[in-house]
Amino acid sequence: MDLLAVTPGLIALVVLVVIAVLVLSSVIKIVPQGYNWTVENFGRYTRTLTPGLSLLIPFIERIGRKMNMMEQVLDVPTQEVITRDNASVAADGVAFYQILDARAAAYEVSGLEYAILNLVMTNLRSVMGSMDLDDLLSNRDSISERILRVVDDASHTWGIKITRIEIKDINPPKNLVDAMARQMMAEREKRAEILEAEGEKSAAILRAEGEKQSAILKAEGQRDAAFRDAEARERQAEAEAKATQMVSDAIAAGDVQAINYFVAQKYTEALGRIASAPNQRVVLMPMEASSLAGSIAGIAELARATFGDMPAAQTPPTNQARSRPNRPSGPSGPQAGPPEFTTRSSWDRDGG
Fold this sequence. Notes:
Putative membrane protease subunit protein; Band_7; Tetrahydropterin Synthase, Chain A; three-stranded antiparallel β-sheet; 4 domains; Band7/mec-2_domain; 54% helix
């Protein structure tokens, strides 16, 4: 029992231990990572403690503010905004900031987050109120950039950096949303009609171009065909002229065989043209070979009479003129007459 008795010496020892612990706890400070602590000397800022172990002067220095140096997020509540074209919208957002100077953030502004929030909300209304609703809905990035630039310039004296400001939602009234939907539908129908008209226009142009090219190619084909036809006729005429000239030269030289050939050729061509005429009904009577030979011989005699002074070429036996006895007329056939170069109709044959 005597060992457990409280003596004045024991009490003094305990008091000294408690005082030592209190003194050490006020002197030794461990700052966590991501934070800066300010130190005040009798209420006046003296220095900033960075992460790690630090020592303070007991009973003179104390910790003032513990500042978070990491990037922080601040929600911007929904607020009503009147646009330049008098449309009312509800908008909200989010702001990101980071403390760069613990002393300025602790002693240059009272209520840092409240100050940042009001600054962002004020500039959000100002920037969005200077824009039309259509620009507001389609240019969120530009709105965020303008607000960020203004807020960052205004808050740099607070020792902070506004890193980002994002617009989360822009909600027009329901009646305005319905009107916008109708307008969008009308615009889409208009664009569809324009695209359809442009498609028809392009198709018509292509068809016209195709018809134009077809007409050009057709005209070129007709031109080439006409040119080739004319060239063929020209060559045929040249050949006929050359043949006629050769026959004329032969006749002039007294060659009766040439004129016989020429007359027989023309005679045959004339019969072919008469037989192929579409507007005539012609019956060609077969002529005896001796009649054709007699005709050619008669022409030869005429040529001899005309060119009597020139030496006549020897006439082949088949082309010599032969006399034909007159056939008695009767029902068996017509009486043979002199050689003719014309056709006979069917009734002349029956009634001759």
